[in-house]
Write a structure and sequence with these properties.
This protein is α+β, with helices and mostly antiparallel strands. It contains five helices and 17 strands. Helix 1 packs across helix 2. The chain is globular, with a radius of gyration of 20 Å. The site of pyrrole-2-carboxylate (PYC) has 11 residues, from helix 3 and helix 5.
Length: about 325
């Protein structure tokens, strides 16, 4: 006789959430029912979440409750009284910043009545504060953390592909930006794009190419000129965890703009229209803080769901498969 399984009569844990997508990329904002991470900086909150409560990440993103392409955002009180703290995470771990996620958070705060149209709000992230603004129910922007290019002219060899000479840049996460031909970045070439970006990432790791202070370069951004007049450039971004960004990637676009400023191709006040793999766009205005770029990234987000995630202690797959 098989052992009888333990049962839970009702849910043992509940987490409320609001889902949205920003230019195609999903965000799940977690609200009530999350562990109390104490009054701390966003960096400390991220460490506590990862160390003591990683179940929150798995519960909210793993199937059957979530999907691997979604980015989660855990909101909490900021160190400054007028701020929220936000920790972003995905199917593989924790992010520094997330641009599409920030726009999703701002639209969600508007939906919840915690932010009015025209209002600005400070969000503390593990890599520094960003200043968010809600322009309309479905449109928001944020001034990103100071972004910069660390290295240019970095050659990378990938078998079967023309030699690549890329750049290493910071936009809230670390990116390797690899120029490719515009016709390579197409929605019907997702498998090829995934393969190329994964091989570049593998090559970066093999050669010990890293960001500042030895940080892992965990995002690969394939970049090309736009092939129609409505945009300035297009990209495909491979995120840690193996998913691609359906949006034009806010942190990746910040890294790209930092490279263009470093080359003298963009100046303060210029606007760069970045197209992502779905053809959706972010408009990014160049602003400077000293020699660093503090891009203002603007885009649209739409609500897609809201509810309560349930957890039963008796469920052997409660944290996902
Ligand atoms: O928009 O910065 C972004 C982002 C990072 C990972 C997924 N989206």
């Amino acid at each position: 006789m098989p052992e009888p399984r333990p049962t839970s009569r009702g849910p043992d844990r509940r987490i409320s959430y609001v889902d949205s997508h920003t230019e195609g990329e999903p965000t799940r904002v977690l609200l009530d029912g999350v562990p109390d991470l104490g009054p701390a900086s966003a960096l400390d909150r991220r460490e506590r979440l990862a160390r003591d409560h990683d179940w929150v990440r798995r519960l909210s993103l793993a199937p059957p409750r979530g999907s691997p392409e979604t980015v989660g955002a855990l909101l909490g009180p900021g160190v400054r009284e007028d701020a929220h703290s936000v920790v972003f995470f995905n199917n593989a771990g924790y992010l520094g910043m997330c641009g599409h996620g920030t726009i999703g958070v701002l639209v969600t705060l508007g939906h919840l009545g915690r932010m009015s149209i025209g209002e600005s709000h400070r969000l503390e992230t593990p890599v520094g504060p960003v200043e968010g603004r809600l322009h309309a129910a479905n449109e928001a922007s944020f001034r990103n953390v100071p972004s910069y290019r660390l290295r240019s002219n970095v050659p990378v060899e990938v078998p079967g592909h023309a030699p690549i000479v890329g750049e290493i840049a910071w936009g809230g996460n670390w990116f390797f930006l690899a120029p490719v031909e515009p016709e390579e970045i197409r929605r019907d070439r997702l498998d090829e794009l995934h393969r190329l970006a994964s091989e570049i990432r593998h090559e970066l790791a093999r050669r010990g190419l890293r960001g500042e202070n030895g940080a892992e370069i965990d995002h690969v951004e394939l970049v090309a000129d736009a092939d129609h007049p409505g945009a300035d450039g297009k990209n495909y971004v491979l995120c840690p965890g193996g998913e691609f960004d359906r949006s034009p990637c806010g942190t990746g676009t910040s890294a790209k703009v930092a490279c263009l400023v470093a080359d003298g191709r963009l100046r303060p006040g210029d606007v760069w229209r970045q197209e992502g793999i779905l053809g959706t766009q972010f408009a990014v205005e160049v602003q400077m803080e000293g020699d660093r770029v503090t891009p203002i990234v603007r885009g649209h987000a739409y609500l897609t769901g809201e509810g309560t995630l349930l957890w039963q202690d008796a469920d052997p797959l409660r944290e996902g498969p």
